[in-house]
Design brief:
Shape: globular
Number of strands: 11
CATH superfamily of the largest domain: ATPase, nucleotide binding domain
CATH architecture of the largest domain: 2-Layer Sandwich
Distance between the termini: 24 Å
Strand content: 15-25%
CATH topology of the largest domain: Nucleotidyltransferase, domain 5
Length: 264
Amino acid sequence: MSSDASSLLAPLVLGLDFGSRFVKLAYTTDFKRFSRRKVDALIFYRDYFRQTDGGLEFDWPRLSISAPKQVVVTGYGKHLFKNLLPTITEIRAHFLGASFQTGLNHFILLEIGGQDTKALYIKEGRVFDFLTNDRCAAGTGRYLENMARFLKMPWRQFTSCSQEPVAISNTCAIFGETELISHLLDGVPLASIAAGVNDSVACRALQMIKRFPCEILVFVGGVARNRAVVECLRRSGNYQVIVPPEPQFNGALGCCLEKNTDSR
């Protein structure tokens, strides 16, 4: 039997990462090739699983996914499944995902999602230290989206603005507009304000990771797809910044890989 045919018959392993904005799914039969799917969190909660007498049940056919043999969950929604499915911390999920995607065993891992930021120090293939900022959405994807919406800039345009940033000191996702209004009244170009917003997120993240003694920075999470923030990290910090091929699915990949480590 060919390897392709064998993989079709092999049991499906699926990782679920419940983010604040999207639910990310990664699934595989061989831990070499992964399929991915992203669903708006509200739509996922509303349409793709339901409560039953036995707990919660996923609607796999509606997701166009074969029923998996094993599922591992992380993220904001993992508490819903802790008595039904294996769950792992987001720290472990992102560590496994980033190690797999980069092949590195000594690096700083920065994950900026919709509502929080995590910084991990990986040494000798283990998590030596970590910091999280999960009490406030300051400097996260939600903040960036709010500021782009306030400036009425298309997302693609906003995430290309990294040059000549104006200084932004308030990275609050709710009250950051006040400082932007002040810059607009002073006649600062819109592109410089957007660049300032992106740069402020990068600088906030660099403050989190400065305690870690390493020059390689692996950047994952939804904000890692923001080209301007990546450029600001490279310009403002003395790091080799690496964005893996699938930064937004890193946690879901890590959930899949947890089952691979179980089988060793």
